[in-house]
Hints:
The protein contains five helices and nine strands; from the N terminus they run αβαββαββαββαββ. It is an alpha+beta fold.
Amino acid sequence: MSVGTGSSQSVYPVSPGEETIREAILAVIVDNEPGVLARVVGLISARGYNIESLTVAETDVEKHRSRITIVTRGTPSKVEQIKAQLGRLVPVRRVIDVTAETDALERELALVKIVGKGEQRVEAMRLSGIFRARAVDTTHTSFVFEVTGAREKINAFIDLMRPLGLIEVARTGVLSIRRGPESD
């Protein structure tokens, strides 16, 4: 007999929020020193979670601080557990759950290479204008477009370019920052 909700096979009551796997975007402010990235990534992978996107860069040269932005998926309790464990690592200064922030901006950059001739080239250029993608390289048979925006926008651009001769994509992963005068 199942006591849980819906199609749960557990004999223990499980709240609906615990069953739901959600995407989590975590910004981890760390001391910029050797091995920090390996420790942060190791902590997440040791818990059995996949990192869907990862970006890292030094953000404060004077204080030697870097920002690691990680996109992963998990139940709310598992995401809270990861945040708590990340917060206990010595080089970690702060962990921010960007998905919980109402005033956060998220963007991604992609370089998209298209090879084609004739109508395919014309259509690729037309679509790039709609998506505000910029041609950063062009030859007689190819384009490389730079497109920035939300992941959904980039995914839509890539999907539309597939039949037009898409041969390669390079993406940065998600970047995020809070709106307004506050700093992370």
